[in-house]
Write a structure and sequence with these properties.
The complex is a heterodimer.
Chain A: H1 3-22, H2 26-48, H3 70-101
Helix pairs in contact in A: 1-2, 2-3
Chain B: H1 7-21, H2 28-52, E1 58-61, E2 76-79, H3 81-104, H4 111-128, H5 132-150, H6 157-188, H7 193-202, H8 207-223, H9 231-239, H10 242-268, H11 276-299, H12 304-324, H13 328-359, H14 375-389, H15 397-409, H16 415-439, H17 464-479, H18 487-498, H19 501-510, H20 529-551, H21 557-577, H22 582-603
Antiparallel strand pairs in B: 1-2
Helix pairs in contact in B: 1-2, 1-4, 2-3, 2-4, 3-4, 3-10, 3-13, 3-17, 4-5, 4-10, 5-6, 5-10, 6-8, 6-9, 6-22, 7-10, 7-19, 8-10, 8-22, 9-12, 10-12, 10-13, 11-12, 11-16, 12-13, 12-15, 12-16, 13-14, 13-15, 13-17, 13-18, 14-16, 14-17, 15-20, 16-20
Classes of the chains: A mainly alpha, B mainly alpha.
Chain lengths: ~110, ~600
């Protein structure tokens, strides 16, 4: 059991969240979200990692060969697809904000409050 | 009958692809027909599934990958009464919203319909899935469609703010869920609800399971708009077009709550059984706080849609209490509440949309007395508002009384009175707004209410009779939810089966058929005396709060001064916290997650 990878995943998540909280630019904020997102990949891939495991491609390898877990890889792939959509949407909104206000500072995008 | 399960998802998604591909090519009328008929068909099939699930769970394994031993190899849809009920509610609201949009959003591009259809398919999939990661995928798909719909009018600042805040907070919540899923998979090697639940129930639980539970719980609490994760909701609702608000308030928020109930009962209830009391206290506490915060903020609004949005937060808190009591009766109460509140709140948003269309504004004070001639709109607004109070046998009454009964039975006797007050304050605010706009009562100025910007109204070309017809149908369905013969006993029966983890696992993993449920009567349950008392008390209080909101300045100086000194500072602080700034919201998300995690660290060792 290797705890380092889990620690790294937690750290990346916290760093990304901190960046998103203090961000002064919506594009920077979107990138901070992708940082949080990459922490989930580190977590997923370390969950599926096996020592001396090979890639989970079963054609041409002997039965019983140790491979890493393919399921977490497909989870990570699925999430990449979904998150690309979400991030693209947030970036598009950031562009619209910049068009409208001339700035991408999220603190300026306040019309409704209280 | 298992072939039914994919249909409520597949039909709207295929229709979305069809409408998107045929944009500018196929005639408008064909496009409209597809956009309305697809969710209507999905509604019909969900209803059919709901009827079938009366006899037991309905399971469909995609690709025929049936489980072997305790191993679920494939991804399955598992229909149960409550899940199918959520699909029926979601698809019905999408159908109503799309009929409304036929004329209300006529000038907008067909991509609006496409997004609504994707939203519909995702909500149905979310309600019917039996797999944790699959649920996450539907959650994200639902999210993407919703963010785009919230910011549909991108040329204005309000929708941009709403969509940005909504998208970022919910995405952060989604990543927390994914982490929780990763940890659960690491521990159990499974993604199927029944299989994870079976593993956790048969192995000793440790901190990892608690951390995973916390991460998944918080992710869904963000969607369910529970304090302190609720901030995005008001921003997104105030800015989104009325038919979109219908789906946000009526179905999407409730699906977040549904997910919490689903995951607790199928996945964690076995493993966390020893800590049930702590989970219960936490969920009930944050539910009550949410109900009160939502109600107070609701009372301070003058933007009609934002006011309704905060009322949704208040109701969401009550619903969480029903789920968080961890009993079948409370869960049944929440299910009933979700149905009645869903339609009534949808009706109010649709009515607000008509007000915006006809009076060209959506601000309570600027519209003072402007709606005197809108007789039908007035009747609908007040009918729906009264339905939300919980007056005996009207609207949300049964849901509330079941939640109250469960709370009293579990030793949370202090909860029902607080929920009653929250209910009365939020319903009072809706009544007050109606009285000012449609009757012209009360003063034209009110320093208590937040300042609001204007919203650009929709096209004038809309056909008002059609809009009124849709709104009337919606409100009428919501009002009769407490008097549909046999509904209450069926929901209670469904809730009892919902909380039976081992029967669920046996059916999903080993295809064991459950004994046939008893024949349920078609009767209206007689309300208990205390439910009558609560219902009438809530009504009296709601009208009192509405009157106070209109004429509070006529109170004697001494009383008024006392109220201002006592309630002023906390209310000001609460209002300042709703800053509309995304960084603050994310900070609250972090604080909330830390507090929940810290509470667990002390209580669940």
């Amino acid at each position: 059991m290797n705890f380092l990878a889990y620690g790294v995943a937690g750290w990346i998540c916290i760093v990304g969240l901190y960046g998103a909280i203090v961000s002064k630019n919506l594009i920077h904020l979107a990138l901070c979200l992708t940082v949080i997102q990459s922490s989930t990949y580190v977590l997923l891939l370390s969950v599926g990692y096996r020592h001396h495991g090979t890639a989970p491609i079963y054609k041409g390898i002997r039965l019983g060969t140790n491979t890493v877990d393919p399921i977490v890889q497909s989870l990570a792939l699925t999430d990449i697809v979904i998150s690309v959509t979400v991030i693209a949407l947030i970036l598009a909104l950031a562009l619209d904000v910049h068009k409208k206000l001339g700035t991408a500072d999220p603190d300026e995008v306040v019309e409704l409050q209280g | 009958m298992t072939w039914l399960l994919p249909l409520p998802v597949a039909i709207p998604l295929l229709a979305a692809a069809l409408v998107a591909a045929g944009d500018h090519v196929t005639p408008r009328i064909v496009q409209n027909a597809i956009a309305v008929l697809a969710p209507a068909a999905a509604t019909g099939f969900s209803f059919w599934i709901m009827l079938e699930t009366q006899h037991g769970l309905l399971i469909h394994w995609y690709g025929g990958w049936h489980p072997i031993g305790n191993l679920a190899i494939g991804i399955g849809f598992v229909g149960d009464s409550l899940g199918a009920g959520m699909a029926v509610l979601s698809c019905t609201l999408v159908t109503l919203a799309l009929v409304y949009s036929l004329t209300y959003m006529r000038e907008s591009s067909r991509l609006f319909d496409v997004l609504m259809l994707v939203f519909c398919g995702a909500m149905a999939g979310f309600s019917l899935t039996g797999d944790l990661f699959n649920m996450f995928v539907w959650f994200e798909l639902m999210g993407v469609a919703a963010y785009a719909l919230a910011g549909f009018k991108v040329e204005e600042l309000g929708p941009l703010q709403g969509a940005v805040n909504f998208a970022i907070t919910n995405t952060a919540g989604a990543y927390l869920i994914l982490m929780g899923i990763g940890l659960l998979y690491a521990r159990t090697g499974a993604l199927n609800f029944a299989q994870i639940g079976h593993f956790l129930a048969t192995h000793p639980s440790d901190r990892l399971v608690v951390v995973a539970f916390t991460l998944v719980l918080i992710g869904f609490l963000v969607k369910a708009a529970i304090v302190p994760f609720h901030w995005w909701l008001a921003d997104a609702h105030a800015a989104a077009p009325a038919p979109v608000c219908v789906l946000f308030s009526g179905a999407m928020v409730e699906l977040g709550l549904f997910a919490i109930a689903r995951i607790y009962w199928t996945v964690f209830s076995g493993g966390l059984h020893a800590h049930q009391g702590d989970v219960r206290s936490l969920l009930v506490w944050i539910g009550v706080v949410t109900a009160l915060v939502g109600a107070v903020m609701c009372f301070l609004q003058r933007h009609l849609k934002r006011l309704l949005a905060f009322s949704t937060i208040a109701h969401s808190g009550t619903m969480l209490v029903g789920i968080g009591l961890l009993g079948a009766k409370g869960l049944a109460g929440t299910a009933n509440l979700i149905l009645s509140h869903g339609f009534l709140k949808a009706g109010l948003f649709l009515a607000a949309g008509i007000v915006l269309l006809r009076l060209r504004d959506i601000d309570e004070l600027r519209l003072h007395g402007a709606g005197r001639n809108l007789r039908w709109e007035r009747a609908l607004w007040f009918a729906a508002a009264i339905g939300l109070i919980g007056f005996p046998y009207v609207g949300v009454f049964v849901g509330h009384s079941l939640v109250d009964e469960e709370a009293s039975g579990q030793g949370f006797a202090w909860v029902p009175p607080l929920l009653l007050v929250a209910e009365a304050v939020s319903a009072g605010a809706i009544l007050r707004a109606g009285a000012r706009v449609f009757l012209g009562w009360g003063p034209k100025r009110d320093p208590l209410l937040s300042w609001e910007p204007e919203e650009s109204p929709p096209e004038r070309s809309a056909s008002v009779p059609l809009l009124l017809a849709v709104t009337t149908v919606t409100v009428a369905i919501g009002l009769v939810m407490s008097v549909i013969p046999g509904l209450q006993v069926r929901i209670e029966n469904g809730a009892e089966r919902f909380v039976d983890r081992s029967a669920y696992a046996a059916r999903v993993l080993h295809a064991k058929s459950t004994p046939a449920p008893p024949h349920l009567p078609f009767a209206i349950e007689v309300a208990k005396p205390e439910s009558w008392a609560y219902g009438i008390g809530a009504a009296v209080l709601a009208f009192a709060f509405a009157a106070a909101g209109l004429w509070y300045r006529r109170l004697p100086e001494l009383v008024l001064g006392g109220i201002v000194r006592g309630l002023g500072p906390p209310v000001r602080a609460l209002r300042a916290a709703h800053s509309g700034i995304i960084g603050d919201y994310l900070l609250w998300l972090t604080i909330g997650a830390t507090v929940v995690g810290g509470a667990w660290a002390f209580s669940l060792r």
